[in-house]
């Protein structure tokens, strides 16, 4: 083993996330490099996600991460000291064995994830490689389509809009950079539309940088997106298509086995009919978590129905970046796409295994942020490394969102002329 790459120090630090809550940063040092990574946190979470380690008690409403810092420095650090940062699989395997639980409840997903990602950064730095090349190879072919969540609802906002995200996907540009600027123009046009209709007080933004107008009906949100696209001078279906993240587990009443939103109860059948109507009325090409997280058969029914309308059904809470849940979805033909969130599973190795399986099973890959995030841009490089079809990292506002977009702009600039933009082909 080359001693230059052996782990010499592992340090944790309690930092702030974008909601003003504490989270964890971990740094891993070798003789020649240092890598750091932060832990994001979701507001709406799948029940099968890996679990965070929090302090409990009165301090910071129990959300403190001092226990996580202690775990990093006193339990994990001795276990991986001296290991080669280039041996990601061995280090992650050590973490998994040290934890020994299915949902990372001993060490915590936040401690394991930050160590795992920091190791990768330290290795890339030691080799003098950009992170995306270290993780994915020297010749990436594609830039992903950005899915910009510009109207926030559900757990991400304080309005009455119960669907969680309303998204524009710029598909008609020649490259990622131009596509992002299309999204930015639509975002600003939307602000003007909202201010003109509801007043300046509704120009404030939600957790992911999108606007949170005082509306309840998803059709009202979609109409606002349509108006913003047209006001910005772009054409729906040619330049831009729409997407929705329902986060339907948040709407599901498990005792009654019904969904509750807009003041009424919905069965799975009536909800499938509702989504079909939306797809007929609007250029929606992707819908995420349209049903609750264990309804693999309902997802499959909806995917079969919407496939005729060229809509991709995507699982997030359905899968939680978990290989065994993905296999269940594959057997049921539940979806055509998957959300990839490294903190849902806990290590980089497990994340890559999930992506590899999803690709083999012809699932579209959507690398995603979390609603509580930091200025860590790791997922931008990850999206290039795994050649994802899409990246979802919020509106083009707030530093924890723009840092990912800015990193992608850097990569697109570095690779211009040698890399293509997936554009409308991402939906094929």
UniProtKB/TrEMBL annotation:
Please give one Gene Ontology molecular function term for this protein.
Answer: magnesium ion binding
Q: Which Pfam families match?
A: Enolase_C, Enolase_N
Q: Which domain of life is it from?
A: Archaea
Q: Where is the Enolase N-terminal domain?
A: 7-135
Q: What class of enzyme is it?
A: lyase
Recorded catalytic activity of this chain's protein: (2R)-2-phosphoglycerate = phosphoenolpyruvate + H2O
Instruction: Indicate the residues that form the catalytic site.
Output: 208, 341
The UniProt entry, under CDD domains, shows: enolase (cd03313)
Residues at which substrate binds:
156, 165, 288, 316, 368-371, 392
Entry keyword Lyase: yes
Required co-factors: Mg(2+)
**What residues bind (2R)-2-phosphoglycerate, as annotated?**
164, 341, 370-371, 392
Keywords recorded for this protein, A-Z: Cytoplasm, Glycolysis, Lyase, Magnesium, Metal-binding, Pyruvate, Secreted
Q: Which GO terms describe its biological process?
A: glycolytic process
Q: Where in the cell is it found?
A: Cytoplasm; Secreted; Cell surface
Specify whether Lyase is a keyword of the entry.
Answer: yes
Q: What does the similarity note say?
A: Belongs to the enolase family.
Q: What NCBIfam families does the database record attribute to this sequence?
A: eno
What does this chain do?
A: Catalyzes the reversible conversion of 2-phosphoglycerate (2-PG) into phosphoenolpyruvate (PEP). It is essential for the degradation of carbohydrates via glycolysis.
Protein name (Swiss-Prot/TrEMBL): Enolase
What organism does the UniProt record list as the source?
Answer: Fervidicoccus fontis
